Amino acid sequence: MYTLEINERSSQIIDDIIRIRRDIHRHPELGFHEYRTSSIVSDFLENLGFTVYTNIAKTGVVGVLEGKSSGKTIAIRADMDALPIAEENDFEYVSQNPNVMHACGHDAHTAIALGVAKILSGFRDRISGNVKFIFQPAEEGLGGADFIINEGVLDNPSTDAIIALHVSPLLKSGQISIGTGPVMASPADFDIVIKGKGGHAAQPHKSINPISIGVNILNMFSSIIPKTITQTLSPFKSAILSITCFEAGNTYNVIPSQAFIKGTVRAFDRETHDEIYAKMQSIIASITSAEGADFSFNYDLSYPPVINNDEIAKLISNASKKIIGKDNVLEKPEPSMLAEDFSYYTLKVPGAIFNLGCSNPCDENFHNLHSSRFNLDENCISTGMQILSQCVLDFLG
């Protein structure tokens, strides 16, 4: 129902929505500083006659479309922030802000949600209930979802369900994937400082070398995941531990006094994180003690995992099949070790997020999310608008 009309309305507005996406891409803004973007969003929603709330969690915007009569409320969430990356693309709408780039597709998420608002505004007199559009700041590592939820965006009217999408260059434009249960991991970032004793490189016996200690620690870390999964927990669990930074010293003939290690752990439950943390702590303490060194270790557990509600995931799957056909809907994909603060919403109300394919079907060479060369096939914008619109209309009946 409504599928053909959704397609027609999408075709009528797609050029305008692409222009908005390119404008936002050209002027990216970091988390909690999305002032220009939020102004574009609020002006657009006000022109549609929505009830609009601004300055939520600093730069967040909420627009509410009220139907002809009372009923359920479904929310659509779109994140607005960019990344601290210097863009290396050369198209006409490349970032004009030095060292800031929309490398994760949030420009498209924002534009798609605005397109959905425009499409659904034409159904205002045919739906019962409300559609709430949540434009969230600071998804990238800052947990903006938690802040905006704490300011009441799921209330007034009370939200019955929430849906979202994330572009994925691992899928072709015109495809989506949707899973149930745990679909995205819970991340933890860690910092280790190894405190040795600096000295002359020609007299290593008078020093405590934090570099060699760090190497030994990292070698032992390689056994943590397999032992934690197979010996302590369950072979059906999964996790990763990645080292992303190892810094020490800056010249040839000096043994430094300290070494610094950074990295991330991803898992799908708190129990696994606790086991990994305990094993890391034990390894670091044992090796540094044996070498006469000291250490500090910080393990910062961040977002909870994203848990897709079965019924809302089914809603998305069925709506997607109406728009793109069942062959282009990939169900039950492998859970992703990427993280998303959409998880905070799903702790409060039934919700689900899906992956929207955004790579060009004719081009096998693509740049992944968070790449300085990332770009998307803009055909995915229409697909995203239509699927979300269909989801809303199916949910509200």
From TrEMBL:
Q: Which organism is it from?
A: Acetivibrio mesophilus
Domain of life of the native organism: Bacteria
Residues involved in Mn(2+) binding: C104, H106, E140, H166, H370
NCBIfam families attached to this UniProt entry = amidohydrolases
- Does 4Fe-4S count among this protein's keywords? no
- Any note on cofactor binding? The Mn(2+) ion enhances activity.
Record-annotated Peptidase M20 dimerisation domain positions: 189-286
Please name the Pfam families in this protein's record. M20_dimer, Peptidase_M20
- Family annotation (Gene3D superfamilies): 3.30.70.360, Zn peptidases (3.40.630.10)
Query: What's the name of the protein?
Result: Amidohydrolase
What Gene Ontology molecular-function terms does this entry list?
hydrolase activity; metal ion binding
Q: Which UniProt keywords apply?
A: Hydrolase, Manganese, Metal-binding
List cofactor names only. Mn(2+)
